[in-house]
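One record is set out below.
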Amino acid sequence: MSHKTLFLQQSYEDCTRQYMELLEKQKMPLWDYVILTASNESQAQSYRMQIQYRLDHGMLPKSIHYAVLPDPDGKRVGSGGATLNVLRYIHQDAGSFDDKRILVIHSGGDSKRVPQYSACGKLFSPVPRLLPNGRRSTLFDEFMISMCGVAARIRAGMLVCSGDVLLLFNPLQIDFYGSGAAALSIKEPAEIGKNHGVYRVDEQGNVGGFLHKKTVDQLHELQAADENGNVDIDTGAVIMDTDLLKALYKLVDTPEQFDAYVNENTRLSFYADFLYPLASQSSLEQYYKETPEGDFTPELHECRTKLWEVLHTFHMKLIRMSPAAFIHFGTTKELRHLMTEGMEQFVYLGWNSFVNTNSTSIRSGYASGNSYISKRAKIGKGTYVEDSYVHHGTVIGTNCVVSGVTLDGQNIPDGAVIHGLKLGEEQFVARMYGVNDNPKECSLFGRKLSEPLWTAKIYPICRTMREAVDAALQAYEQGFPIKDSFVSLKDSFNMADVTAILPWQDKLDDKVRVESLLEAIDNKVDLKQAFISCGGNVSPRVERLLLREAERLDSRNLEQFSRKIRIYYMLSLVKETYMDNCFDTIGKAVLDTAVAGLECSRETKLSKEESIVRLPVRVNWGGGWSDTPPYCMEHGGTVLNAAVLLDGNYPIEAIARRIEGNKIVLASADSGAEQEFTDIKQLQDSSNPYDPFALHKAALIACGLIPYSENRSIEEITNQLGSGLYLSTRVINIPRGSGLGTSSILAGACVKALYEITGRRLEEDELYNRVLCMEQIMSTGGGWQDQVGGLAPGIKMVTSHAEVRQQISCMPCVVSEQTMKELDERFCLIYSGQRRLARNLLRDVVGRYVGGNPDAVEVLYEIQRSAVLMRFELEKGDVDAFARLLNEHWELSKRLDSGCTNVCIDMIFKAVEDLIDAKMICGAGGGGFLQVVLKKGITAKQLQERLHDVFQDSGVSVWQCQFV
């Protein structure tokens, strides 16, 4: 990249950043007025809509006074007449020009050489880059960004620009506090200057004269080129101080004078009539000969005489900007080339051949902006598509320009332009011509016309855009016959419903945004980043479309389920409440699969007097979180854990017992709560997390003893069972929040007890599903490893396949007696002395996974890998290698959830660091139990002594555990 390119890139980025800061808070002088000129009221109305749209969406500084001024009375008065109209407007509004900074963008042309921008105005033609808010830029947006820094570089006055030239420069190079005028120029080789206006400079550094489209030799002969062969190019940007503005305004300060200067007979030119007299080497005689915007008329001659008297007393300084560049949005041919093959030279500006489009393959060879393109459409190389729908079956040839149409299966020939316009209610026209055609000439697709293409009536008006496109293609086949009932490019421009342009573009932008977001969702990329790339916001229509898509998706289908939860996640970036929809969808999918086929059997009876189930707790080693929906649904889960006793006891207990009477009694020995239930509705409500009997109620429902929603009486149910039922739970001598999976294992104990007392056989996988069902009924979420860890004995690898309904497989690890003996000696549990604080952990970790957070996705993969390697090392008998993997898992756990540790946990591990080879939390961490692997030769007693020395009687202690 050249030094010039690097400079312009940095300047461009600086201007954009500065402008975005100005939108938040004005930190430097800004324009007091920004005024656009328009050719007629219809075009002016279109411009006003564009400006208001930007104000409504926070894209323009609100402190500026914006105005759009059409040529008075719809008469073409020239750029000079339009400038005088601006001066009158400001004087009427502000009373004077003193201390005013004014930006005027002349944008009232017909865009004859780029007809698709006639109605919207070339000033609002697209620029192929995304603004920071995710919207496609336009020339107007680029003007506002690049010129925002110029206001601070002038004391007061007016900057006049041409609306079809984009200047790239650094505003710090502009410094104008003098009198008269200043022309902004850039240095370019004479070879480029021959196609543009060039300034000739006098000895004082002022503009001495103007040279228009001279040859390279002539530029050198007229001393316009410097020793390096560079010339000062006229960029069309000129600054005028307040004295000069006042002098001009005096010429038109009465209605009569204004009418004399601003009319279609005079048609003053800003460049020929206002700037020429400011050149120091100009002459009145030559001034009279300068080519006007209209015709040479007596009115023009008289106005020029008076303008000379007023303006020739001022000078025009030349301000050279370098490095600098300008891009001229000239003809359709140039536009097509710029957007396709020519894009490479502007990549440094952040320009892209694909902006706001669902089609982004550079290898496709075409370019697209703000368009939806079906993957089953065929588009030729070198073609540019903007503001259009291209549905499947459409074939577009090479080197075409397609703008503002809906194509649905048509065939567009090579080198064609097709541009759609809405003219009125049920009135549409598709204008078709060649990319190389000049509408000012009498030629169309190589055929001679009897008049200029601009005025030839060759386009039929139709009731729909589809009909208009078909009619244009038919006219093409017939050689474009001229008919009085048809319209021309000029007619359609004047008849265009300009109010329809922005809504059409907005609708397309939203459609493309939806497709882009859905593509990001389906690819499971970082959704926060994708959201930011789309501007960090969505319109109400995008929100509605995404919601509609989510609502139609069937969560029983894994692919649709994945898309649905991520749509809600994406929307939660706009409104947090949508995260509830995301987790509700996950919970409902698990619940629906868990309760599928679940029935409250009318045949079930109590077959035993009592059933007592006692279970161990579990310690988690590898793969934790991979068992949690929706990760396990989309990738399958892989977990390594072990069942353990504490102090030689089974700490989890559930008792189901037959009792007399038509009642159900639930008891929680841990809390000392017991309650008799005779109302079915109370038993069916298990979603309150503070209800001491929520787990009991969920177990009754999951085991089919209480109907999930059916309204039956307790009396009917107990009569069917043959007696009343008592269900009690207890966790023996384990603090709450232990991290040992007690809640889920207790749920498993309840299920086993209820199945046993009713004499029903329960397969292993069904047992796990019943517990999963319970957790969803209770709205606690979570995975399946806890209950499997306590329900299945020993050290085991627990896995599931990627599917909505989890089928869990439990494979015991084949560990030698010697290795088990070593584990018994070296593995210890440490109670941290603190209860794990309630955190919104599930929502956070699962939310980051659903949102495609790269770190979360990577960690979830790696922890599964660790589980497999841990099993391998244990079965090979290498406890040291197992310990190293446990340490690695601990580091991964902290990456996934920084809250899994805290100062207290870190201090405990630090205090025993020299005694242990591995450390890990139990469960989600943040408190409860910790697990360590001791160094060889270190005993649990030594570990306890160290902990007591450091933490005394604070509760931090070693607990005896045995593998079962």
Q: What stands out?
A: The two ends are 68 Å apart (CA to CA). Residues 825 and 939 are 7 Å apart (CA to CA). The mean pLDDT is 92. The first strand starts at residue 33 and ends at 38.
